[in-house]
Write a structure and sequence with these properties.
With 370 residues, the protein is mainly α. The protein is built from 15 helices and no strands.
Length: 370
Amino acid sequence: MTLFAVNLLQFAMIAVAGLGIALTVAQPRLRAVSALLAMSATWMVFNFLEETSGFRDIWLVTPAFRLAYPPLVYLIVRSVIIAGPALRWRDWPHALPFLAALALTPQIGLVEHAARISLFAYSAAAFLLVGRFHRATRDMRSDARTIQLNWMVAMLAFYVVDGVFDLLRMDAHWLHPYWPWLGSQSAYVFQIAVSLASLFVLVVLSVQHTRLFAGLEGRALEVWAEGRAASQKAAETAEAGDVAQADFRRVEACVRDEALYTEPRLTRQEVATASGLSERAVTLAIKSATGRNFNDYINALRIEDVCAMMQADARTGTRQRVIDLAFTAGFSSKSVFNAVFKRETGQTPSAYAATLAVPHEGPKSGAGAS
């Protein structure tokens, strides 16, 4: 039996997937990752058998695997956003298209159509979930910008591009005469190599999962959506404005006067507890009085504090590092601080400090002399 470059890549994928499973299977939050790695290893085993042992003439299994990946990718995204086990018993319907495809592999055209629908449907659902997470955390947490899942958006985009490439290579035979490389063995080797690299990155991120955001609790996104809708409805009532203004004064008394904004991971729930208001009332009060969400409101107070400390340093001639002032004010990320500072002041921190360092022209020595 002759082995080719693609077979060596298949063995490498099986090895990386096996190592990843050993590192993740004991962690409930990483079970979706373990399932995807197991699926990848199984896919490569069948790929190898189909290419070297004529297994495709007995049972052509590999097309069905294109229906296994989209739901697993979605469940991985969900496991990063929502705390708790990545896989639950109620998730079993996600496996039905894949199981059905195993029995329908002779109907290759039907499986291909289902794979296209699954790829775009689950990818859209994953992007929408990340978008809801970003909007919800801006209403609930002062560190929302620090825990943004931009890396997840990038991984999803890469997954979609790779899936589209697979569709073009496997299904778009009408395109092959215009782009012969798509139908070549080198295109297949290229895709397996890309899959191996992405699998390796997934394993590395999983090993470092303790650095990831801890995840929102349970129905946090649903509760946020319900609260947002209720707040928007309440804002339309006549008496809502006066109530919101009174509530905002209570919020200000806690957040500003007690310097709660200096807590790096301050949450809306903590402000609600300190002010004796509901979380919904806190959101409505801040939105009505400032037009901002919770995250932007807290960060604006932090920038105000940093500017005050920089002005004090300029008056006394002391020189503290701006990033130290930012951490004192409650920021936990330099990049987030720089972005928010520029948004709030229209200047970078260094440019703002330079304006404070410009000496003011005092009265001339002869002014007022008789």
